[in-house]
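seq:
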Amino acid sequence: MQHQRTFEALECSGLSLAEVVQHYLNMGGSMDELEVDAYLHGLIQLPSQERDCISQAVNELIDDMFSGGSYHCCRAPYSPEHRSNLGRLSPPAPRTRLRSRLRTTRVDS
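struct:
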């Protein structure tokens, strides 16, 4: 299902497979264009890490294309493993602590 919705997002946005694969490889992906194409068409399965990297590449390219406009294209989904790991990330530091760290850094420099 993830592959199908990722392919739909790619098509909806007008992105080419070559654009997505280039961005995916620049992000650290390890599959070639033929393997990504086969995955998007449901012919092969990929590990969740690779699937999520492809989804992220599609979503980032969509964000870049429509950053200034109000066009809302469909998005590529992430695997359940990816979504559950997001909840485990620690919350960002409060701004007051971050500001005090910046002041300390500037004084020490």
